[in-house]
């Protein structure tokens, strides 16, 4: 790993502990992972050398981080679906109910709650459709490629032409969701409840922060590991046949 020339997404894929460093400095490592640290720092007027130093000072033993890059693609697709997709399905209705309650009780004093609810509702609707596209179209094709590689057989021709087509669509939708959650973070003052916040208010903001953190990891695993590897695997078949 060369932290001065590798893209941010590649650095996080190599060692997920670096994600915390990028997040602390306000650097998007998932949707905008395709740039160097220097490029990201230039846009934000940050000192790249201080970030290099933080990364270099991480303990050498990798802190017991899971090496997702070494996982077979079918296992990684299953992990994303059973961990991160299920998280979205489980938490979304709870958060929508809490936000609805906050708007009714506190909306008069905190009108920003209505905008937060509108953004989250839009995210919930689009994410629901997005996850189904991955589960019904993209992930099965990735698993079929892995099976074909093991069996030494040809891959069936998918209806979407090449895997790059749905991958590009999913990455675009990731960017849209990342921007929505960035706006929610801004409207909540980085998930800081106001002085008059009740327990539901505090719990909702904490859950929104968790939701954003989980989505960042979810998008990272897809954009920076699963998708590039799927594209490379498909290319192997075109070379072989």
Automatic annotation (TrEMBL):
GO CC annotation: cytoplasm
Organism of this sequence: Epilithonimonas vandammei
Compartments, as annotated in UniProt: Cytoplasm
Domain of life: Bacteria
Residue span(s) of domain Hemerythrin-like: 82-230
Stated name of the protein: Iron-sulfur cluster repair di-iron protein
Keywords: Cytoplasm, Iron, Metal-binding
Cited Pfam families: Hemerythrin (PF01814), ScdA_N (PF04405)
């Amino acid at each position: 790993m060369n932290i001065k020339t590798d893209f941010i997404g590649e650095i996080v894929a190599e060692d997920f502990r670096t994600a915390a460093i990028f997040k602390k400095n306000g650097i998007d490592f998932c949707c905008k992972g395709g740039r160097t640290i220097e490029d990201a720092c230039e846009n934000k007027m940050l000192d790249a050398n201080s970030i290099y130093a933080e990364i270099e000072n991480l303990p050498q033993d990798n802190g017991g981080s899971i090496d997702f890059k070494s996982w077979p693609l079918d296992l990684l697709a299953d992990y994303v679906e059973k961990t991160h997709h299920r998280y979205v399905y489980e938490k979304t209705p709870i958060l929508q109910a809490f936000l609805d309650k906050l708007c009714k009780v506190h909306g008069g004093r905190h009108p920003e709650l209505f905008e937060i609810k509108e953004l989250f509702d839009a995210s919930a609707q689009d994410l629901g459709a997005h996850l189904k596209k991955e589960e019904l179209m993209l992930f099965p094709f990735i698993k079929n490629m892995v099976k074909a590689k093991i069996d030494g057989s040809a891959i069936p021709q998918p209806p979407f032409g090449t895997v790059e087509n749905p991958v590009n669509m999913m990455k675009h939708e990731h960017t849209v969701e990342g921007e929505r959650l960035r706006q929610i973070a801004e409207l909540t003052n980085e998930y800081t409840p106001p002085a008059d916040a009740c327990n539901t208010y505090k719990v909702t903001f904490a859950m929104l922060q968790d939701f954003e953190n989980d989505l960042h990891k979810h998008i990272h695993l897809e954009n920076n590991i699963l998708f590039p590897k799927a594209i490379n695997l498909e290319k192997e078949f075109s070379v072989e046949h």
